[in-house]
């Protein structure tokens, strides 16, 4: 039997609101002046909270960075879309859903990518976290393709299928086509869906 979700207390709602205002302030400052140039003092001033509150909630800037990344994942909905795709047994449809998930990930991720690039340039631990996040994405994409392999071309090895899928869904391709060449996100998604089907299906 499912447990009934208890409503948040006033204190919990206040804590979440404080966390959100800090995240919003930090995101804005990271974009305006760069991760390295942004101080906790500046974040607290923009958020309108005490410096001690920022430290208590996030400990340091990397803690805020992680919160921004998690918020991005939630906003993109790509985790949910990939989970739903694995229940779809029609191969073309599954790959179309994967293309949609990728489009949502990068369409909402431009800010996050810019922030992480800025952070990685000045913070070794942030750079390591960026590499960890990229490695995690590769693992998750690998799992998706491993579970999809029975629906793909019979001459494809698991490794080659994973390599193709990972390469075709890189953020750099989205940035090139949409950010630099002027494609719409819809055009990118249609192209990616078609290309995935051409490369992975019989």
Walk me through this protein's architecture.
- With 202 residues, the protein is mostly helical.
- It folds into 2 domains: 10-59, Homeodomain-like (Arc Repressor Mutant, subunit A), CATH 1.10.10; 66-200, Tetracycline Repressor, domain 2 (Orthogonal Bundle).
- Helices cover 77% and strands 0% of the residues.
- The chain is built from 11 helices and no strands.
- Helix 7 (110-122) packs across helix 8 and helix 8 packs across helix 9 (158-168).
- The radius of gyration is 20 Å and the shape is elongated.
- The protein starts with 9 loop residues before the first helix and ends with a helix.
CATH class of the largest domain: Mainly Alpha
Structural class: mainly alpha
Shape summary: elongated
What is the CATH architecture annotation of the largest domain? Answer: Orthogonal Bundle
Q: How would you sum up the major sheet?
A: none
Count, helices: 11
Question: What is the CA-atom radius of gyration, in angstroms?
Answer: 20 Å
Distance between the termini: 44 Å
- Tell me the strand percentage band: under 5%
Average pLDDT: 91
How many strand elements? 0
Low-confidence stretches: none
Order of helices and strands: HHHHHHHHHHH
Quick overview:
This protein folds into two domains: 10-59, Arc Repressor Mutant, subunit A (Orthogonal Bundle), CATH 1.10.10; 66-200, Tetracycline Repressor, domain 2 (Orthogonal Bundle), CATH 1.10.357. Helix content is 77%, strand content 0%. The protein has helices spanning 10-33, 40-47, 51-58, 61-76, 78-85, 91-107, 110-122, 124-148, 158-168, 171-180, 185-200.
């Amino acid at each position: 039997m499912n447990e009934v979700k208890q409503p948040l207390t006033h204190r919990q709602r206040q804590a979440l609101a404080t966390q959100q205002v800090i995240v919003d302030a930090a995101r804005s400052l990271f974009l305006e002046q760069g991760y390295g140039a942004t101080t906790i003092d500046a974040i607290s001033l923009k958020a309108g909270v005490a410096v001690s509150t920022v430290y208590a909630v996030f400990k340091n800037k990397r803690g805020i960075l992680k919160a921004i990344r998690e918020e991005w994942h939630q906003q993109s909905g790509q985790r949910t879309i990939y989970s739903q795709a694995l229940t779809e047994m029609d191969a073309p449809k599954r790959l179309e859903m994967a293309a949609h998930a990728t489009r949502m990930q990068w369409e909402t991720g431009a800010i996050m990518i810019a922030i992480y690039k800025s952070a990685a340039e000045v913070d070794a631990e942030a750079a390591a976290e960026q590499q960890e996040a990229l490695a995690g994405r590769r693992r998750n994409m690998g799992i998706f393709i491993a579970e999809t392999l029975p629906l793909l071309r019979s001459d494809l090895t698991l490794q080659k299928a994973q390599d193709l899928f990972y390469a075709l869904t890189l953020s750099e391709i989205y940035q090139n086509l949409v950010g630099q060449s002027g494609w719409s996100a819809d055009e990118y998604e249609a192209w990616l869906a078609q290309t995935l089907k051409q490369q992975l299906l019989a």
